[in-house]
């Protein structure tokens, strides 16, 4: 069911849209934890480290899928705000074609070079083959991820944040069942976990597509809408590709940090993997709010409601600060208990648990700048800017690389933990100024438009 986000209280609109997304994201993280728990407990610490070592490479393609879907959906959302049904259908049709071409190309290239990439980042030899088994399958099945994220983004573009959550829950439950079947019953190890992910995402994508076709006629493209439109394709790529690339740029930074982590050995890699999973749980409100503000901003931009856009960003910042304080408390209280879920306490070195806690204690102090990145970066994408996300992503990448190569020399493992916060602060400092400049440009345009 579509939802008009151009009328009402900005705070209530954002919260009502964000909460279902947050619950869906949280559920997704929980089933992602099941992957890690199953591997850590039933395959071993080395397998757990293998999954952790490819986190950056997985994020590179998954983040690309999310960014591409969000970017394409911005045009749909703006058309929805402007009540332009033809443009909505045409944009959806072009998005389907572009996603197929881009996704297939990336899938083939990354699958062919997966093991070479892992060797380039000094993946420990004792986990190299398991890491490659996992990431190769993820790359081969990339199109399932791209299409699920596209369909979910399109639904959110018209104000429906609940249906994608339902489909995600279905996918998550199926993923857990397949995890257990392909690791415990059919002992495929890391390959089984990857297959479970790809299959469940594919089924979720199919369900999403049929739902859109049946329940949302305003989005249902017809044969005429699939006629190539070079102007619209250029517009979609101008917003979609920078959004996709900015996620991938961030992933490169994560991979750089992973190189530093790998140099400390597989036990530290395992600790970092556990800490990273817990980080993803306590910070899930931020990307959910980012998706909400993107849809909110795009709809109000399409409707020409400048004041509503400003009020929305102010409300979003208040939400960011509130959740940052809550997540800081969670990081210090739930990390150690959750860490024991991933590992067999009777056979695991206690230092792995302690280092996971150290990671969370270090980064949780910097959750406000992290939240600001999601608010202003994704929100700027909703305002039609591809440049702002790219600028902040490149800033984040440069700072993360510098920190990852220098801080560990002086501070050891704690220095690696600080690499991401340094990057968050740098990106968060410039984003508000970019947002202000974008808003001035929008205001000038609206004043000149009859």
From TrEMBL:
Entry keyword annotation includes Membrane: yes
CDD domains from the UniProt entry: MATE_yoeA_like
Localization in the cell: Cell membrane
Tagged with keyword Transmembrane helix: yes
GO function term, MF aspect, one: xenobiotic transmembrane transporter activity
Membrane topology: Multi-pass membrane protein
Main location class: membrane
Cellular component, GO annotation: plasma membrane
Keywords assigned by UniProt, alphabetized: Cell membrane, Membrane, Transmembrane, Transmembrane helix, Transport
TM region positions: 56-80, 92-114, 134-158, 165-186, 192-212, 232-261, 281-303, 315-334, 358-376, 422-438
Source organism superkingdom: Bacteria
Full protein name: MATE family efflux transporter
């Amino acid at each position: 069911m579509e939802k008009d986000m151009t009328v009402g209280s900005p705070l209530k609109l954002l919260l009502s849209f964000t909460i279902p997304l947050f619950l869906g994201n949280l559920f997704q993280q929980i089933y992602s934890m099941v992957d890690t728990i199953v591997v850590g407990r039933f395959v071993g610490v080395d397998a757990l480290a293998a999954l952790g070592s490819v986190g950056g490479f997985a994020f590179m393609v998954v983040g690309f899928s999310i960014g591409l879907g969000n970017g394409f959906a911005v045009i749909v959302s703006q058309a929805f705000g402007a009540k332009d049904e033809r443009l909505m259908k045409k944009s959806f049709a072009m998005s389907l074609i572009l996603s197929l071409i881009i996704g297939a190309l990336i899938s083939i290239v990354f699958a062919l070079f997966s093991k070479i990439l892992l060797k380039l980042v000094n993946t420990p030899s004792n986990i190299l083959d398991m890491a490659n088994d996992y990431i190769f399958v993820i790359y081969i099945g990339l199109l399932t991820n791209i299409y699920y994220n596209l369909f979910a983004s399109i639904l959110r573009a018209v104000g429906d944040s609940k249906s994608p959550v339902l489909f995600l829950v279905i996918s998550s439950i199926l993923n857990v069942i397949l995890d257990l079947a392909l690791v415990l019953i059919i002992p495929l190890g890391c390959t089984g976990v990857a297959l479970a992910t790809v299959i469940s995402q594919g089924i979720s994508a199919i369900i999403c597509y049929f739902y859109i076709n049946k329940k949302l006629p305003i989005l249902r493209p017809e044969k005429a809408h699939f006629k190539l439109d070079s102007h619209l394709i250029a517009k979609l790529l101008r917003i979609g590709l920078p959004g996709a690339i900015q996620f991938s740029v961030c992933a490169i930074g994560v991979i750089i940090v992973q190189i530093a982590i790998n140099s400390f050995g597989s036990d530290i890699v395992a600790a970092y993997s556990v800490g990273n999973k817990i980080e993803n749980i306590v910070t899930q409100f931020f990307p959910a709010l980012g998706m909400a503000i993107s849809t909110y901003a795009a709809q109000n931009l399409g409707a020409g409601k400048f004041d509503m856009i400003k009020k929305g960003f102010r409300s979003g910042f208040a939400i960011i600060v509130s959740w940052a304080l809550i997540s800081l408390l969670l990081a210090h209280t739930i990390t150690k208990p959750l860490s024991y879920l991933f590992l067999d306490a009777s056979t695991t070195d206690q230092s792995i648990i302690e280092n996971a806690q150290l990671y969370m204690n270090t980064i949780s102090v910097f959750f406000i700048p992290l939240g600001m990145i999601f608010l202003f970066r994704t929100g700027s994408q909703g305002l039609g800017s591809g440049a702002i996300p790219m600028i902040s992503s490149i800033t984040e990448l440069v700072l993360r690389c510098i920190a990852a190569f220098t801080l560990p020399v002086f501070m050891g493992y704690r220095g690696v933990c600080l690499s991401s916060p340094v990057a968050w602060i740098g990106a968060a400092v410039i984003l508000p100024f970019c947002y202000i400049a974008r808003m001035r440009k929008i205001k000038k345009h609206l004043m000149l438009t009859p």
